[in-house]
Amino acid sequence: MINEPDIVFRTKGLTKSYRSAAGEVQALRGVDFQAARGEFIVILGPSGSGKSTFLNIVGGLDTATSGEAWFKDHRLTALDARGLTQYRRDHVGFVFQFYNLVPSLTARENVALVTEIARNPMSPEAALALVGLTDRADHFPAQLSGGEQQRVAIARAIAKNPDVLLCDEPTGALDSATGIRVLEVLTEVNRRIGATTLVITHNAAIRDIADRVLRFADGRIVEETVNASRKAPADVSW
Amino acid sequence: MVITPLRRKVLRDLARLWPQSLAIALVLAAGVATMILGNGAYSALSDTRARYYDTSRFADVFADVTRAPRALLDDVRAIDGVLAAEARIVKLGLLDLPEMVEPGTILLVSLPEGGGAGLNRLHLRQGRLPDPQSAREMVVSEGFATAHRLSPGATLTVVMNGQRRDLMITGIALSPEFIYALGPGEMMPDPRRFGIGWLPRESLAGAYDLEGAFSNLVLVLAPGAPIERVIADVDRLTAPYGGTGATARADLTSHAFLDAELKQLGAMVHVLPPIFLLVAAMLVNMTLSRLVTLEREQIGLFKAIGYAPRAIAQHYVEFVLTIAILGIAIGFAAGAWMGAGLARLYARFFSFPFLVFSNDPRIYALAALVTAGAAVTGALFAVRAVLALPPAVAMAPPAPAEYRQQGGTLWRRLGFRQTRIMTARHLMRWPMRTLSGILGVALSVAILVASLWSFGSIERMIDITFFRTERQDVQMVFGQPEPLRAVFAARQMPGVMVAEPFRAAAAQISHRNLLRKVTVIGRPAEPRLSRVLAPDLRPMDMPEAGLILSETLAQVLEVRPGDNVTVTFLDGARRSLTLPVSGVSVGYVGLGATMDIGALNRATGGGQMISGVNLLIDPAGLEEFFDAAAASPKTGFIAVMGLTVARFRATLAENITVMITVYVALAAIIAVGVIYNFSRISLSEQGRELASLRVLGFTRAEVAAILFSELAVIVLLAQPLGWAIGFGMGLAMAGAFSSDLYRVPFVIGPAVYATASLVVCTAAALSALAVRQRINRLDLIEVLKTRE
């Protein structure tokens, strides 16, 4: 099954525990998961349910306590810090709630930051065109609206032609109209470049735009729904 | 005692920011320490000297004569303004010591009659004064006694006027006249080869055929007496007896060398502490500005709940003052420690009966006050802006940093990577901070450039003086001028290969109202051993008529080649004549004037006389030569060039390690302080961006390179600026150190700049490495969850 060409992610018995002042915290309690190439998956769940921890581990930002996580034929749980950096660099696009743009670089330069170190990137202009920001390419983040900043962040994430696109609350800091525009961009990009897309959100309304919806609670996947048909973001009631 | 919440915050902030605080404290400490060291050493030297002079009734005016009747003393005492005068016999003797191949020199000085009273009183360290009736007893100077392990009861063989005499040492003493005891023809005190012996008057009078006569006068003047007029009167009285002109205390070698040391200390106090205080103020400003920006919302909160702006300002001032107090405490300790070290060094060079490194509380208080002032000034500038904000505005997060399109296209065309553009824009976003960083590092380079150049300068002095100018092996100076044929006798001495005569004549040279007393040296028309060099270092032939002046003397007299000067010879017939200046020569020691030996003899009117010979000696015959020279009644003293250079170098080598260590430490403190604080601030501002880049797949090294390239820009831009500032400081110091006594050539080669830059870049690299750890520990997950 590992060699199944269409499987991008696979995890088995993934656990994560932290030692904190309050004692041991179990963030993940055994997550079994797999995702196919080009799939658009929405992950729901309350705060502390482990969804971000899960995304961080499959994104190569964090390490698991036990269990296995695979990206294609890379066993992520066996990689060291250097290996994880290389994995992120070559395969993963990230989109964050607070955009995390470099304030001293323009939209184009923020995208170029990634294309310069990527193996097979598109041009920064093409990435910005995909998110509809061609005319804002020379603006600094401080000169852009929140939605525009998030679209720059998406352009930056997809410019390397990533295999996976991981988005943690991408609309969390945006109003509904802007949020819908961002989701439209995400679904469009998912369709155009075929990157497996995982989107974490608090907003259950977004579930209808996904191929599949996972619900996290208490460190586990407690519900999995496959949508027979996907709605367009504009049709989602917010 | 209840600790208020704000005070508690001061302590917690300090604990949290301890490395940055310590870096600032060390820069402040360096300022305090140099201030205490400089001021303390200055007052220690000048106070000790003043007290010593006072208690020993040190003379104000000194005059040499060839031979004057004792009756003349009454006339001298009668001069208006003279409080006391003494007639002495002062002669050079040769030392015949079994442990030395070359003859040493001893300056023999007669003791005042009637016991210990009189002028220039000796300070007896051991033993007793000689019996006034004894011709076999002597007191010697302490440095000389120590160098030869002589103690009272030992016997010393002295060649006086060609006759060997065994003298018993009865005591060991110090004199205010020889605090800095420099032998004839020497550049550094060498107590092994030069000593002072004090003998009863009669004993010396007998040896030098000066019964009822004297060869030297010392005078103490009434307070406020016009010294110039007294000197003129003394010159008038002594002229018929071979008087070569009286000198004031200020021109006495020992005194003048102490003055030169004081001048250097003064220069240090005026240069180093202000640099440290400036850098410290900049660092405080930089660091506190960032702290205040981070705490902007807290400040708004404090204001909103009713804290007055004053109380908030006081909070930050207290934070900075705590750092300043730490710096002052370290500075006090370091200053006192280095002061004690310097006092030990002085004790080796200067013969004082006592030397207390004064721990004057006023010096400490002033240093503390100035330092705290500099720190608080830096703090107030940082807090000012935030205090002016209304609480509501302050509580809101600051507007995002505005960047402008600064050369983006240009940089892209130049092939700049985005990370380089980040670096450039971040540096330009905070121009004042960037400039402060550059200036700080530049000052650290400058301190090194301004101190390290002196080594090259000393090498140049040695090279010019001993290898290009004074090329003889030995200079043999006669006790008194001899007829020209003495040079043939010298050629017959064992080991002598080449002998070249010279004539030395004391003279006053004047131009307009400018006047200096110098020794005019007569040389053969084409001198081969003791030469004179033009500024382009080519040897100069002696002009048929006319004088060659050293650069320093030409400057002092404001003359150029072609001008005429008036020369009055002070011995013999005291002739006065006008001579043209034919050329200007290089020379670093004393004021020099030279002319053709024949022309000089014609000018003085004393016949064909020579004062001594410069000799090249076959090394194999050196020992035999010294024996013969010591036995010759004509020998006044013998200067051995090789030993002079060796002593000069050895003395410097002793101090060079200490000096380099101190200056490198001072420069490193600044460089580390500036770079460490700068990088911590930069990391604090860009930590979120750098962590984001790590998430995007940038490696640790790539992310660290972004921060390091900022530091590299600062450090690189600082180098040329530091070289320029250091060059200026060095030039000013060379000017400040130069006196009639010696001139310091300002020689500064690429090695000086390279060394300074290497030291500073190393210090910068080390502080950058300290920050590298923090870059490696950036929290990648936290940065995604929080908004700045």
Question: What can you see in these coordinates?
Answer:
The complex is a heterodimer of chains A (238) and B (788). Chain A is of the alpha/beta class. Chain A has one domain (7-228): P-loop containing nucleotide triphosphate hydrolases (Rossmann fold). Chain A contains six helices and ten strands, in the order βββαββαβαααβαβββ. In chain A, the strands form two sheets. In chain A, strands 6-7-8-3-9-10 form a six-stranded mixed beta sheet, sandwiched between helices. A four-stranded antiparallel beta sheet of chain A has the order 2-1-4-5, with helices on one face. In chain A, strand 9 and strand 10 (220-226) form a beta hairpin. In chain A, helix 3 crosses helix 4, helix 3 (107-115) packs parallel to helix 5 and helix 4 (124-130) packs across helix 5. The N and C termini of chain A lie far apart (38 Å). Chain B is α+β, with helices and mostly antiparallel strands. Among the domains of chain B are: 60-253, no CATH class; 417-468 and 643-788, no CATH class; 496-617, no CATH class. Chain B contains 22 helices and 20 strands. A six-stranded mixed beta barrel of chain B has the order 3-4-9-6-8-7. At the A-B interface, helix 2 and helix 3 of A face helix 13, helix 19 and helix 22 of B.
β content of chain B, as a range? 15-25%
On the 0 to 100 scale, the average pLDDT of chain A is 90
Quaternary status: heterodimer
Helix content of chain A: 25-40%
Radius of gyration of chain A: 17 Å
Q: What number of domains of chain A?
A: 1
Q: Whole-number radius of gyration of chain B? A: 34 Å
Give the fraction of residues assigned to helices of chain B: 40-55%
Shape of chain A: globular
CATH architecture of chain A: 3-Layer(aba) Sandwich
Number of strands of chain A: 10
**Residue share in β-strands of chain A:** 25-35%
| Biggest contact | A-B, 36 and 36 residues
CATH fold descriptor of chain A? Rossmann fold
